[in-house]
Specification:
The chain is of the alpha+beta class and 103 residues long. The protein has one domain. 49% of the residues lie in helices and 22% in strands. It is elongated. The protein starts with a helix and ends with a helix. The mean pLDDT is 88.
Length: 103
């Protein structure tokens, strides 16, 4: 996360929850683009607020299944995707959330 944005998360911890929602929605959008037939994603996310040097550094760790579950209980593995697209989705989602919340 950009150093300039960290201060918002430091003094408004509810933004960390919003960060998780942005990531979940962004991941859903990314997975739908990779597999437009729908399905349910499977992920576990953890909020981490400090880095190597005990300085405030909000970030997330996520374990994400490499596919989608269907209602029929079958699992479809997604084809390899370019992660740059996912980065762009996350970046725009987080900036939009901050723009809406911080005003």
């Amino acid at each position: 996360m950009l150093l300039a944005l960290r201060i918002y998360f430091k003094y408004d911890r509810e933004l960390l929850t919003d960060l998780c929602h942005c990531e979940e929605e962004g991941l859903g959008d990314f997975l739908y683009r990779a597999w437009p037939f729908g399905g349910i994603s499977c992920l576990v996310m953890v909020i981490h607020t400090f880095g190597d040097y005990a300085r405030f550094h909000p970030h997330l760790y996520a374990i994400v299944a490499d596919g989608l579950f269907q209602k029929s209980r079958s699992f479809y593995v997604l084809p390899r995707c370019e992660m740059k697209q996912l980065e762009e989705i996350f970046r725009s989602s987080i900036l939009a959330m901050l723009n809406a919340r911080v005003r």
